[in-house]
């Protein structure tokens, strides 16, 4: 039986509210040992903690403030220090249960970010969360859309030594700067339709790769709800690119995840 760890998913998303039990059951049947549930904003922190308590030893919480915050379904803006201030008391309350701080990072997508002031606001939010992660001795679960190089540079400047860069959309040469810093990169099932992700995996050492689904996004098909059970699609495609067995990909990526998120080691036995 193959045993996987989904290092980055949004299991608290409303998309899963109606059939969460079935989704978790299918995840376990597909060989998942653990799901790392990441947050985007303070309003979902309690829901993530509740899910981790409902599915103990399987769903593990990561709390953090995403660089882009929704104002409405149609409108988003850069994260602000005020967003983080609202999140900090809840992070403090649940700090002993957390396996990482996340999802944090930078997102310089033009439709969200219109000026340098927005970018600076995101940087300040990320810097403060990097400090929190250090204080709590936790890794960072990192988003870096259209901002691969600035994100890696900022993490290095802040002395971050434990980080997962999820669904990295930058050039392989930029990712290799992260590899030199000891960072890991998680690959979603959308690799089967992303030439950029395929090129990335070709360059990255297997020892720096983890698996993720980013459920409900980044699935094998566009606009179709992604689920953690699709984790094997990532592993199979990586094995094809690397020319190694799926078993090897599973073994190495699971060990990588346990190394990066040491709290998982206490709860699960691959």
Automatic annotation (TrEMBL):
InterPro entries attached to this UniProt entry: Metal_Hydrolase, TatD-like
Pfam families recorded: TatD_DNase
The keyword Cell wall biogenesis/degradation is annotated on this UniProt entry: no
The entry's keywords: Hydrolase, Metal-binding
The keyword Cytoplasm is annotated on this UniProt entry: no
Residues that coordinate or bind a divalent metal cation 2: 143, 166
Ligand binding (a divalent metal cation 1): 8, 10, 103, 214
GO molecular function terms attached to this record: hydrolase activity, acting on ester bonds; metal ion binding
CDD domains named among the record's database cross-references: TatD_DNAse
Homology family: Belongs to the metallo-dependent hydrolases superfamily. TatD-type hydrolase family.
Protein purpose: Exhibits 3'-exonuclease activities and apurinic/apyrimidinic (AP) endonuclease (in vitro). Show preferential AP endonuclease activity on double-stranded DNA substrates and 3'- exonuclease activity on single-stranded DNA.
Annotated protein name in UniProt: TatD DNase domain containing 3-like isoform X1
Gene: LOC114848681
């Amino acid at each position: 039986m193959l045993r996987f760890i989904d290092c980055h998913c949004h299991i608290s998303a409303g998309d899963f509210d109606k059939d969460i039990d079935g989704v978790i059951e299918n995840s376990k049947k597909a060989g998942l040992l653990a799901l790392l549930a990441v947050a985007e904003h303070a309003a979902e922190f309690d829901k993530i903690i509740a899910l981790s308590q409902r599915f103990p030893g399987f769903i593990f919480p990561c709390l953090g403030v995403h660089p882009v915050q929704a104002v409405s379904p149609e409108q988003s803006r850069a994260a602000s220090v005020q967003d983080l201030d609202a999140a900090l008391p809840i992070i403090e309350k649940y700090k002993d249960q957390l396996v990482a701080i996340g999802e944090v990072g930078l997102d310089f997508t033009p439709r969200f970010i219109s000026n340098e002031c927005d970018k600076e606001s995101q940087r300040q939010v990320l810097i403060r969360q990097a400090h929190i992660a250090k204080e709590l001795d936790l890794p960072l679960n990192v988003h870096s859309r259209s901002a691969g190089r600035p994100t890696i540079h900022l993490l290095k400047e802040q002395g971050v030594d434990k980080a997962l860069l999820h669904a990295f959309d930058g050039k392989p040469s930029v990712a290799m700067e992260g590899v030199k810093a000891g960072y890991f990169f998680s690959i979603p099932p959308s690799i089967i339709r992303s030439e950029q992700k395929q090129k990335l995996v070709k360059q990255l050492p297997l020892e720096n790769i983890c698996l993720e689904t980013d459920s409900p996004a980044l699935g094998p098909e566009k606009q179709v709800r992604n689920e953690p059970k699709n984790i094997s699609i990532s592993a199979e495609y990586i094995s094809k690119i690397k020319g190694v067995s799926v078993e090897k990909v599973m073994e190495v990526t699971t060990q990588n995840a346990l190394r990066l998120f040491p709290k998982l080691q206490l709860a699960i036995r691959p």
